[in-house]
Write a structure and sequence with these properties.
By secondary structure, this protein is mainly β. The chain is built from one helix and 15 strands, in the order αβββββββββββββββ. The longest helix is centred in the first third of the chain and has 30 residues.
Length: about 260
């Protein structure tokens, strides 16, 4: 009889251990990191469809989105840390509530404009240098099966789809790649935006394939994003798959495992 109780106690302790581990993992995920899977090509070639990363939710302190107040220390307080220009940030869309990932371009008080495809911050053109060509296959991408836009369109299925790559250096020194198809159209010739206090201006690195702060929220764009909508900073790609599923190991991009995000 005592032996049976011993086995029963051991089983209960095992169950408790598993439950506690899951609770700790859940709290760790809720408070510190959030997984994020890249669903679209708006941040190419910095981030590709199928990249999997963890978002650092403590990079800017606590907000009502980055950490529920009843699970964080100093309950009810927001410990704000100013994001830096050039950070790649995950945030909640101010209208739809969907999670987006873009690059932080404009800080509170900045003016931002795009003229003939060139970015201007506070009236000064951002340094931009040619950096070759980005090439990918013209084929359905990821689980959603979207087709990439090509500078060299039309492209036959399976053909080489290209975009011109530039190296952009933001004020403060952050350097990163951007892709372009054209210098024409609204997104490449915008009004002057003045970023309100407590809000931020975001753009995708794939400049002609990103509905970002250049587009008003009433038109389905992002518009200005309040601090409280920021979830966290994306620092490193953990895993990447070019296929419809992460289980298709033959589609894994091994050169992107644990790759730092510039």
């Amino acid at each position: 009889m005592a032996q049976k109780n011993g086995k029963g106690d051991g089983f209960i302790e095992t169950v408790k251990t598993v439950v506690y581990a899951l609770l700790i993992a859940g709290i760790f995920r809720t408070v510190f990191f959030q997984p994020f899977w890249i669903p679209s090509g708006s941040m190419k070639d910095t981030l590709l469809i199928g990249d999997f990363l963890f978002v650092n939710k403590m990079a800017y302190g606590y907000s009502r989105y980055s950490c529920p107040m009843d699970l964080c220390p100093f309950s009810g307080r927001i410990l704000a840390k100013m994001p830096k220009r050039g950070d790649v940030v995950v945030f909640h869309h101010p209208v739809s509530g969907e999670d987006y990932i873009k690059r932080l371009i404009g800080l509170p008080g900045d003016t931002v404009q795009v003229k003939n495809g060139l970015l201007y911050i506070n009236g000064t053109p951002v340094k931009e240098e040619p950096a070759g060509v980005f090439t990918e296959k013209f084929a359905p991408q990821g689980p959603l099966g979207g087709m990439p836009r090509c500078e060299n369109a039309p492209v036959a299925p399976g053909g080489a789809c290209t975009k011109t790559r530039f190296r952009e250096t933001l004020p403060g020194g952050v350097t990163h790649d951007i892709l372009k198809i054209t210098d024409q159209g609204f997104a490449n010739n915008t009004e002057v935006y003045t970023v309100p206090a407590g809000e931020f201006f975001f753009m995708g690195d794939n400049r002609d394939n990103s509905e970002d702060s250049r587009f008003a929220q009433a038109e389905g764009g992002v518009g200005f994003v309040p601090f409280e909508n920021l979830i966290g900073r994306a620092d490193r790609i953990v895993f990447s798959s070019a296929g419809d599923s992460l289980f298709y190991f033959w589609t894994w991009r091994t050169d992107r495992f644990f790759k730092a995000i510039e």
